[in-house]
Backbone:
């Protein structure tokens, strides 16, 4: 889904046309003042439409990141459930249970973050990706595909994901109107 720029393009076309017409009018004529007013209104419309297009593009990126985080979180939860089941059945040692518990805590911490953090979703997306990689590494270590000392790295990564949850920017999503919105009453 792309951002619709047709309104901004139409305003640019109107602005060029009005600017051309303005150059053809005598400066002291009443029509000139009306043309200047129309040109200014079109300029404001252009700025507003471009602002809306930028906001729409940002919202689209935010939704894509949120979807990616949900998919990674679901896959991580599935891996954690698989490890729990594997430990319960006896395919892997029970000492993996604390590691799985730590992974679930990290996953719950990630899911508890606000959907629209003030600082953006970059840190949240990074934490989800690191958690997903740690989950895959945990399975590989648990089943012997990676050496056992990698479990220490997985544990440290899980600890880092949990600790980094409180290190981000303020998470309050209540922000007032922008200075431009205050000036124009938008």
Residues:
């Amino acid at each position: 889904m792309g951002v619709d720029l047709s309104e901004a393009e139409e305003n640019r076309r109107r602005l060029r046309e009005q600017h051309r017409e303005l150059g053809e009018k005598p400066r002291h004529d009443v029509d000139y003042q009306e043309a200047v007013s129309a040109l200014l209104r079109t300029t404001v419309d252009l700025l507003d439409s471009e602002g809306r297009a930028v906001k729409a593009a940002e919202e689209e990126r935010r939704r894509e990141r949120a979807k990616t985080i949900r998919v990674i979180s679901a896959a991580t939860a599935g891996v954690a459930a698989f490890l729990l089941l594997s430990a319960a059945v006896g395919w892997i040692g029970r000492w993996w249970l604390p590691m799985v518990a730590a992974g679930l805590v990290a996953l719950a911490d990630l899911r508890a973050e606000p959907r629209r953090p003030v600082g953006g979703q970059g840190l949240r997306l990074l934490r989800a990706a690191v958690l997903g990689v740690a989950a895959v590494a945990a399975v590989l270590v648990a089943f012997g595909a990676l050496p056992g000392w990698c479990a220490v790295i997985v544990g440290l990564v899980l600890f880092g994901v949990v600790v980094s949850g409180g290190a981000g920017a303020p998470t309050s999503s209540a922000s007032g109107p922008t200075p431009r919105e205050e000036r124009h009453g938008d």
Observations:
- Residues 167-186 have pLDDT under 50 and may be disordered.
- The CA atoms of residues 27 and 33 lie 8 Å apart.
- Helices lie at 6-24, 30-89, 96-112, 122-142, 150-164, 179-184.
- Residues 61-164 form one domain.
